[in-house]
Amino acid sequence: MTRNALMLAVTGASLLFTLPSDPLYMPRAAHRAYDRGTRSLDGRPGRSYWENRARYTITLTTTPPSRRVTGRERIVYHNQSADTLRALVIKLFSNVHRPGAPRNFGATPDYLNAGVQIDSFAVNDATTAWQENPQRFTWQQVALPSPLLPHDSVQLGFAWHYDVTGGGGREGVVDSTTYYLAYFYPRVAVYDDYGGWDMMDFTGLQEFYSDFNDYDVTIRAPANFIVWGSGTLANAAAVLQPGPLTRYEASLTSDTTIHVGTHDQVTGHAVTAQDSLNQWHFTAQDIADVAYGLSDHYAWDAASVLVDDSTGRRASVQAAFNDTAVDFHHTVDYGTAALGWFSHHWPGVPYPYEKSTVFQGDADMEYPMMVNDGSRADTGLSRIVVEHEMAHTYFPFYMGVNETRYGFMDEGWATTFEYLISLDKAGPQKETDIYKNFRVSGWIHDPSALADIPIITPEDMLKSPAYRYNAYGKASLGYLAAKDLLGEATFKKCLQAFMVRWHGKHPMPWDFFNTFNDVSGRDLNWFWRNWFFSNVHIDLALQGVRKDAGGYVVSIENVGGMAAPFDVLARYSDGSSDSWHETPLVWQRDSRRATIQLSTRKTLATLTLDGGIFMDADTTNNRWTAVR
Ligand SMILES: [Zn+2]
After folding, report:
1. By mean pLDDT, which of 20-34, 350-364, 404-418, 466-480 is the weakest?
2. Distance from the CA of 480 to the center of ligand 1, in angstroms?
3. 40 near 64, Cβ under 8 Å?
4. In which element (H, E) is residue 56 found?
5. CA–centroid distance, residue 516 to ligand 1 (Å)
C-alpha cells in the first residue's frame, strides 16, 4: 500500500487515531484487503467488506451400534463477494480418517476408515459426477457447470455416508451406543477477502474457520436414544414423553439443576417417544458449525441462567453423561456459573446463544452450543475445562476468526477468560499456580528456538509444542500484558469495541491491533511488535541498585526482551516491606534496559523482581542483597 492510500484511509476515522509511526508487518494479502477497502485501517470492517454465507438443510440417520451414518443435505450458497466463482472448495473433514491422509498425530488402526463416501452430488438440481483428486483428502475443488456471479447463489445436493470410528477424541464412538457427531457433513469452505479459498488440510490439530450459516438439521435415531446438539430443539413434544418434556421445559427457567432424564429413566425407556426412529429437529441461524451427541444410557441434567439483564434473556445449560462420572453431576452448576460470569464480567458480552450442552466424551473441545469434555477425578480441573470450552463461544464462534491460521486469536482469548474467571472461582493464589503450571511453565523453561517463534507465525505451519506455546500461554500473557498496560477499563472498552465491530465477521490479527490502537487513542504498535511479532521471551536481570537523595535507583536489564509487567519487592533493614508495579510501558523507550526510581527513606536489605504469572526464565539474577 502506498503512503497516500494509508493517509486517505486514516482521514475520517476516529479523531484520536494517528498514523502509527512504525507500521506492523503485514503479509501482502492483508495489504491488498486494506487497499481494496474491504477492511479499514482504523480497525473497522471496510466500506466494501463482504463475506459469503449458506443455508444447510441436513437429514442424518444413525442407528447405534451400527457405525454407519448416512446423510442428505441441500446447501444454498450465496456469493456476496465481488468475484465470479468458477469452482467451489468443499471440505470433507472426516476424510482425515482415510489411510494416507496428512495427520498431526499417529492414528491407531481403529481410527482409520474409508472416509466420506459421496453417494450422489447435484448442482442446481442436476445430478453431477462427483470427482475427487485422490491426493487430496479433507477438501476437494469442484468446478461449477456455470460460473457463480457476484450476488448470485448456487444450490448443492449431497448424499453421503461414513462410519464413525473410535481412537479419536473429537468425534466418533464414545462407547458402543454413544456417538459424538462433529465434522460430519460436506460444507463449502470459507472464501474470504484476504485469502481467497481456504484450501488448508484438516490434520486433526487445527480447529475452525467457518462462515456464519443457517442450519436446519434432522437427526434420525432409534427410540430411547436422546440427541443433544447445536440449535433450537424445534420438536421437543414429538420426541420426548410428557414427563421429561415438562422437566425439560421447566429447566429453561430454573436456576437449579433439574434431572430431565436420569440414567434409570433413560434405560427404562421412560424418556423418548417410542417410534422406531425418532426425528430430532434442530434449527440455528448465523452460527459457524453444528455438532450432535446421542446415547441410549446417558443421564440428562439441565438448568438455566440469566445472561442478558437488559432483555431478561436466560441461557440453558445442559449436561449429558454417564451416571458414574462424578464430576459431571456438577457440570450444569459449573456451566450456569460460567455463562453468567462471562456475560457480566469478561468479556462482559451476553452469552449469544440460547443454550450450551456439555457432552461427556474425551475431546475437551468446543463447538457452537456444544462442549465435548472428558471426565476427571479432579473436579476443580473439570470446572476449568468447562469454563475454557464455553469461553470459546466468544472466540472463535461469536467472532469468526480464522483460528486454523491464527490460533492465538481464539485459544489466547479462551485461556485469558479461563484465567480471569478462575481468579474469581478458585481464588488468586490457586489460579495463579494453575495458570503458571498449565499455561506458562512449559514455554518459559524451554530454551529451544521453538519457544521464541513469534506468535503471528501462521499456526498451520507449527506443531506442538510451538503451536501450543503460541496459541495458548504466550498469546494469553500478551493479552493480559495489554490489560496491565492499558488498565482494566480501557482494555475492556477496546475488547468490547473489537467484538462489536467484528461479531459475525472474519477479523484478521491486524483488525484487532488496529482497533485497540484506535479505541485506546494510543499507538501501541511498539507493544504488539514486541509481543506478537518478535523472537523474545521473559527474562529480567537486576543489574544494580544505588542509593541517591530520593531513595534508590534500580537498573534492570531485559535479557529476554519481552515487554512484560513486573513487581519490584523491597524488604527493609527494619523488617518492613514495600512493592512497586511496573507496567509494560517501562519498556517502550528501550526494550532492553530500564532504570527505576524507588522513593523511600528506609534502608534496603533485599530487592526482588517478580513477574507473577509473567514467569521469568532465569530467576537466579532477579534478587539483590545489601552488603552488610
Ligand atoms: Zn481452547
Report:
1. 20-34
2. 17
3. no
4. strand 53-62
5. 23
For the stretch 510-556, pLDDT in tens is: 999 999 999 999 999 999 999 999 999 999 999 999 999 999 999 99
Task: Say how many Å lie between the CA of residue 387 and the centre of ligand 1.
Answer: 10
- Residue 16: strand, helix, or coil: coil
Distance 558 CA to ligand 1 centre (A): 31
CA of residue 346 to ligand 1 center, whole Å: 16
Mean pLDDT, rounded, of the chain = 95
Provide the domain count of the chain.
3
Q: What's the CATH code of the domain at 96?
A: 2.60.40.1730
In angstroms, rounded to a whole number, what is the distance separating the alpha carbons of residues 394 and 413? Answer: 8
Cβ atoms of 597 and 587 within 8 Å: the answer is no
Same domain, 515 and 606: no
DSSP SS3 for 88: strand
Q: In the listed set 532, 554, 583, which residue is the last one of a domain according to the structure? A: 532
What's the CA-to-centroid distance between 434 and ligand 1, angstroms?
16
Cis (ω within 30 of 0) for the bond into 465?
yes
pTM attached to this predicted model? 0.95
Expressed in angstroms and rounded, the spacing between residue 469 Cα and the centre of ligand 1 is 12
Count CB neighbours of 429 within 10 A.
9
Residue 39 lies in a domain: no
- As given in the structure block, the three cell numbers for residue 230 are 447445536
Q: How far is the CA of 47 from the centre of ligand 1 (A)?
A: 32
Continuous segment of H or E residues that includes residue 299? strand 299-308
What pLDDT, in 10s, does the model give residues 42-90?
A: 999 999 999 999 999 999 999 999 999 999 999 999 999 999 999 999 9
Rounded to the nearest angstrom, the distance between the alpha carbon of 307 and the centre of ligand 1 is: 22
Cβ–Cβ < 8 Å for 587, 594: yes
Q: How far apart are CA 353 and CA 318, in angstroms?
A: 13
45: in domain: no
* Distance (Å, whole) CA 312 – CA 141: 46
Are 207 and 403 in contact, with CB atoms under 8 Å apart?
yes
Regarding whether 312 and 341 lie in a shared domain, the answer is: yes
- Longest Cα–Cα distance in the chain: 91
Please indicate, yes or no, whether residues 252 and 362 belong to a single structural domain of this protein.
yes
Cβ neighbors of 18 (< 8 A, separation 6 or more) are 523
469 and 613, same structural domain? Answer: no
104 CA to middle of ligand 1, Å? 17
What proportion of the chain, given as a percentage, has pLDDT over 70? Answer: 97
The 10s digit of each residue's pLDDT in 276-318 is 999 999 999 999 999 999 999 999 999 999 999 999 999 999 9
Nearest to 480 by CA among 365, 378, 369, 613: 613
Burial of 601: CB neighbours in 10 Å, binned 0-12, 13-18, 19+: exposed
468 and 488 share a domain?
Answer: yes
From ligand 1's centre to the CA of 364, what distance in Å?
8
Q: Taking residues 193-210, report their average pLDDT.
A: 93
**Separation of CA 304 from chain center:** 23
Q: pLDDT tens digits, residue range 141-173?
A: 999 999 999 999 999 999 999 999 997 778 999
C-alpha cell at position 161: 455416508
The domain boundary, picked from 361, 379, 405, lies at 405
Q: Give distance in angstroms: CA of 466 to centre of ligand 1.
A: 15
**Do the Cβ atoms of 294 and 227 come closer than 8 Å?**
yes
- Give the domain extent around 522: 417-532
